[in-house]
Amino acid sequence: MTNAGQSGYEARQLIRAGRHTGQTSGMAPGFVQANLAIIPAAQANDFLRFCVLNPKPCPLIGHSEPGDWRLPALGRDIDIRTDLPSYRVWRDGKIATETDDITSYWRDDLVAFLLGCSFSFEAPLLEAGLTLHHHELGTDVPVYRTSIPTAQAGPFHGPMVVSMRSFKPADAIRAVQITSRMPGVHGAPVHIGLPESIGIQDLDRPDYGSPVPVPAGELPVFWACGITPQAVVEAAGLEFCITHTPAHMLVTDLRIADLSVL
Amino acid sequence: MTNAGQSGYEARQLIRAGRHTGQTSGMAPGFVQANLAIIPAAQANDFLRFCVLNPKPCPLIGHSEPGDWRLPALGRDIDIRTDLPSYRVWRDGKIATETDDITSYWRDDLVAFLLGCSFSFEAPLLEAGLTLHHHELGTDVPVYRTSIPTAQAGPFHGPMVVSMRSFKPADAIRAVQITSRMPGVHGAPVHIGLPESIGIQDLDRPDYGSPVPVPAGELPVFWACGITPQAVVEAAGLEFCITHTPAHMLVTDLRIADLSVL
User: What keywords are assigned to this protein (chains A, B) (predicted)?
Assistant: First the structure.
């Protein structure tokens, strides 16, 4: 991997300086990457409850004090306003703009929530010898809205969003075992094999990411996805909030092993 | 459960006395039940190697000294000649007879091998709230020969035999997690979802046990099965050996927790 040996801190410095502008997949191997939701203090307690009630799509790995852009528990010198390659600014439940710097949007009442990301469990899957087809194709993982409801907290409600990777059945079983050890980054899959039973009508038409064909003899396996908060923010019609742009994550100083059990 | 509180020792005493003559499913809840293969000393080392090479179908939990019918490590006062409700005596790879007492067949060169049994992992599945359809129907679990080869050791070779239980997908994922903790009783499933890819053409026609329909919205999940040695004995054409009759097990004094990890 070209980024072998890169630390989370080094990855963030590249991003902050504008020297890395794309997806963060493959940066700082072994370090945890995180989904971002920045919520005004008025709704922040409800969002915290939403995460606690829905730990599979929203595994909370850290949050800031209101108005504070630092996250010392997640990494040295983090500035959440500049350290992701791309942000979405939302108004009234719709994407108002995408930007690489949210300093001008910052307010004293904003709370940053960081949620575990499936990038962190892909490394152990690859180390176990499993094949990830979206890596082979050089595309994003396909992501779908489902008919699985999240548990509501205040204004936050909506469908669970899932990512899909397909495997031969014996490898799917290995993938369940491996990701079960990592509840901090979505944990075990939420579904396997029968997409129509969770409201996915056409695997070839993902709601986010890129389509990735499922080869004959393989089963689609679905993990709860950190894009769920974006579907929820949309459903809530929140007046104002900020998220990461999908696949453009905060790279932290946490080791993947720090979020693993067993 | 009507046998609640029954110990392994109590179950064996009932069987030895001829007061329990049927299957052992449901006896002595919480105690490990075991598959039996009694092999002449001339082939016993090869059979031991076969078990070591194939731990998923043949998880070895104990074996006797040649000619010794006792198994003190597995239970108080076990007499392997009388303590199972039904045995199969094999000659030249074929079942010669079934009997409830093999004392008259015993020889000084026989070695008893005891292998973990899926009955032991059904209790934790039920405790987790999962439904086992063959229990609802009051039948045996369906068991199939597959196209998955075992690793050969001396004369011992042949297809892996698997048992099938179907679940809704989320419950199938739970079943993988729960049985992964129990490598001593077959461990995680070997297959899920696509029976034809392991050589099973028709789920309604099991090779052993009873057919159990797979409801719409469920996936068939397959575990390596302790009947594998019987298929292997048949393929080897062994001059003489003795096994249990399927579903008629040795009930041991081991607790299921003794064979669990994590």
Answer: Lyase
